[in-house]
Amino acid sequence: MAFVCSTCLASPPAQQTACAGYEAADLPLTASTFPVHKIGGAILFRAGMAVDADGAPNAYGPHNRGLDFTANAKNGGTFSSLARGPDGKPVIQRSGRFKGYYVSTTSLRQAGGNASAPATYVNAAKTPYFVLPPEFMQQFGVVLGDLAVVTNRRNGRSAFAIFADVGPPGRLGEGSIALAEALGLNASPRYGGTTDPSIIYLVFPGSGLGQGKLRTAKEIRSSASKLFRQWGSARRLQACSTPGSP
After folding, report:
1. Residues 6+ apart with CB under 8 A from 186
2. pLDDT tens digits for range 205-220
3. Is pLDDT larger for residue 31 or for residue 36?
4. Which of 85, 181, 79, 179 is nearest to 130 (CA)?
5. Exposed (0-12), middle (13-18) or buried (19+): which is 88, by Cβ within 10 Å?
6. How far apart are CA 216 and CA 151, in angstroms?
7. The whole model's pTM is what?
């Protein structure tokens, strides 16, 4: 259904134009329905941010020696964020700087890459990425590799990011270590992030290169900033995400 934000109705004509074109949608999650808004070809929502270490070569290790608790690499008792060998056990790096750590994976991976090589995946410590549940992808047509601008309303800091990991159903609001750092959050995967829904995610469906294509932080910033300018930049985002907006 069409939606016009109440903030815009009380704003000058220029701001009304910037905030025009809302379309509201409800995203049914496990415990509740989450409000999401379609604006000018982009998808906007507000949430907190859990910090994801997946893809970092030292994300997980035996005896919880990694950046995150090893238990967080599991889904229902089964390892879901680690490369596994033919025996089903997590692959351990046998050489290099992070010898002894598990090989942590992300949903986005380099085409043709060795499934047991850390370089095949998106490094959470170096690449700003965000995480979405499968139901979000299905409802809004977002695919791995799509781009976004993410903003921390508490301090005004923003960062451009790539959709690199599919999270568990029913969970919304998660980003990589590098994204949390860029937003001025505590970036510890164990104790950081925020539960305050002060993080604004503006996602551009169909904006990426798709599965199999990894991108550097510089490439993400260059491509996503161009999309953000075309969409209306910070002025439009401010008009559409101020308190009182949907």
Report:
1. 51, 180, 192, 193, 194
2. 999 999 999 999 999 9
3. 36
4. 179
5. exposed
6. 20
7. 0.86
